[in-house]
Design goal:
By secondary structure, the chain is of the alpha+beta class. It is built from four helices and six strands; from the N terminus they run ααββαββββα. The chain has helices at residues 2-22, 27-31, 60-71, 133-145, and strands at 41-45, 48-55, 76-82, 87-93, 100-111, 115-124. Strands 1-2-6-5-4-3 form a six-stranded antiparallel β-sheet. Strand 1 and strand 2 (48-55) form a beta hairpin. Helix 3 (60-71) packs across helix 4 (133-145). It is elongated and about 70 Å long. 20% of the residues are buried.
Length: 152
Amino acid sequence: MLKIIVLGLLGLFVAFAVWVRLGPTDVAFWHNPKLPIMESGDHPGAGSFVMQRPMDGDGIETLARLDDIILATPRTAILAGTVAEGKITYVTRSRVMGFPDYTTVTLTSLAPLDGSTLQVFGRLRFGKADMGVNRARIEGWLATLDGGTPTQ
């Protein structure tokens, strides 16, 4: 009887692991987050982190450099968007289980002379807390972008 219970639990674990890695993703949901208007700065949340900063000019060059930095991150790929669109959503998977974290980077032009705003919004898909993983990842990307060394 114990063998059956153990095998059943193992089967459930394997099924969950497969679902985490291969389950469908609602691209429209993850690529179009509904965030309130925010001040520049850091905005931590439960299982998420938003960083918003003003940019000089249109910010496209900065977004292109950030895109290169993000794509160099292990287990990270583009889910939707392009640099030209000014909005890209990435999925970064955890090393062991492959849990997905989604990060949407948005460049918003305020006016031709006023510059633009860069917003980076990282959040988890499963669970309630990410133990600071999204914040650390975003801060590492931005440290590299600013010419420093990543904090990760």
